[in-house]
């Protein structure tokens, strides 16, 4: 992997983690939304990541290593969490069902905060990798000047 492809791989990680942070922010903002346009409570959204080159074969691996083709991550999809909504007994709430229960979003604030910290750390790691590659390029250019 050359330095440019390492920067490209880290840049794809930055993009993926930013989307992940955007989804976490949307989940936290809607943690108490009991009514959506589609009906029912808000559903937690999660990003699904995959490697950029998902075709696995020995030929692809060797070609990729020889040619220095870009590696990294891509967002395959943004899906809704299928876990059931949290039901709370609140008979006076306008969205209560006939039994007096309100369906709240399946968003756990603690889980979202942990995911946010992990995404932030991954973002910082990608920034550090880009800075390291940039520093190596600068040192190589300085060596060529001498």
TrEMBL record:
Assembly and binders: The basal body constitutes a major portion of the flagellar organelle and consists of four rings (L,P,S, and M) mounted on a central rod. The rod consists of about 26 subunits of FlgG in the distal portion, and FlgB, FlgC and FlgF are thought to build up the proximal portion of the rod with about 6 subunits each.
Family label: Belongs to the flagella basal body rod proteins family.
PANTHER family: FLAGELLAR BASAL-BODY ROD PROTEIN FLGC, FLAGELLAR PROTEIN
Annotated ranges, domain Flagellar basal body rod protein N-terminal: 8-32
One Pfam family cited in the UniProt record for this chain: Flg_bbr_C
Major localization class: other
Domain Flagellar basal-body/hook protein C-terminal, chain residue ranges per copy: 98-143
GO BP terms, alphabetized: bacterial-type flagellum-dependent swarming motility
Keyword set, alphabetical order: Bacterial flagellum, Cell projection, Cilium, Flagellum
Compartment(s) where it occurs, according to its Swiss-Prot or TrEMBL record: Bacterial flagellum basal body
NCBIfam families: FlgC (TIGR01395)
Organism: Candidatus Fermentithermobacillus carboniphilus
Name the record gives this protein: Flagellar basal-body rod protein FlgC
GO cellular component entries: bacterial-type flagellum basal body, rod
């Amino acid at each position: 992997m050359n330095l440019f492809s390492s920067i490209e791989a880290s840049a794809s990680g930055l993009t993926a983690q930013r989307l992940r942070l955007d989804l976490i922010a949307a989940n936290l903002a809607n943690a108490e939304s009991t009514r959506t346009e589609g009906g029912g409570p808000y559903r937690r959204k999660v990003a699904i990541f995959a490697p950029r080159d998902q075709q696995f074969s020995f030929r692809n691996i060797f070609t990729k290593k020889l040619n220095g083709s870009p590696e990294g991550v891509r967002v395959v999809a943004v899906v809704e969490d299928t876990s059931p909504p949290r039901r709370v007994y609140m008979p006076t709430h306008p969205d209560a069902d006939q039994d007096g229960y309100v369906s709240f979003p399946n968003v756990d604030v603690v889980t979202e905060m942990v995911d946010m910290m992990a995404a932030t750390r991954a973002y910082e790691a990608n920034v550090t990798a880009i800075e390291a590659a940039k520093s190596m390029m600068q040192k190589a250019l300085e060596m060529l000047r001498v």
